[in-house]
Amino acid sequence: MEMFVFYLLLIGLFLCILWAGGKILDKAGFDPRWVVLLLIPVINILMIWVFAFSDWPNVKPESAEK
Q1: Cβ neighbours of 30 (radius 10 Å)
Q2: What backbone torsions phi and psi does residue 47 show, to the nearest 5 degrees?
Q3: Do residues 11 and 39 make contact, with C-beta atoms less than 8 angstroms apart?
Q4: What is the pTM of this model?
Q5: From CA 36, how far away is CA 40, in angstroms rounded?
Q6: Tens place of pLDDT for every residue, the chain, 66 residues?
């Protein structure tokens, strides 16, 4: 019974992480379905770096005149 509760909580945690990642991607201007890549080992780390250093469609570039 304890393992059932553990796995149920683990699935809930995964769903919360995927939901939050999808919201972040949506706000950044990317398709939220990209969040599925978080489930693939090694690819998830690479994609986090790709999203971190790519140009985000919803973010306006800062003016060079400051």
Answers
A1: 17
A2: -70, -35
A3: no
A4: 0.72
A5: 8
A6: 889 999 999 999 999 999 999 999 899 889 999 999 888 999 989 998 988 898 888 877 775 555
User: For residues 30 and 35, what is the distance between their CA atoms, to the nearest angstrom?
Assistant: 10
Residue 38 near residue 44 (C-beta atoms within 8 A): yes
The number of angstroms, rounded, from the C-alpha of 24 to the middle of its chain's C-alpha atoms is 6
Give, as one character, the DSSP assignment of residue 66. -
Could you please report the per-residue DSSP string of 17-42?
A: HHHHHHHHHHHHTS-GGGGGGGGSTT
